[in-house]
Amino acid sequence: MKVMLRQNATGHLVAYVAKKDLEEEVVHQVDSDQGKIFTLANGWELAIPYLPEPLRLPQTIEAKRLS
């Protein structure tokens, strides 16, 4: 699914999923063998395999929902 990453006014990372009309703050992120895994405030986990470093925002990327 396509996910847009951006920073909100307080400087926190936010993920927006247009197909679900969902915008949630990223509360946790870890590196794994699947790339970066972001945990959203609603409990969703998104795996992002090829996230360039340094992260330039806003950016639309392809992500896979794990849970």
UniProtKB/TrEMBL annotation:
Span of the signal peptide: none
Pfam short name (any one): NifT
Top-rank taxon, per record: Bacteria
InterPro entries given in the database record: NifT (IPR009727), NifT/FixU_barrel-like_dom_sf (IPR024044)
NCBIfam families: nifT_nitrog
Record's protein name: Nitrogen fixation protein NifT
Gene name of the record: nifT
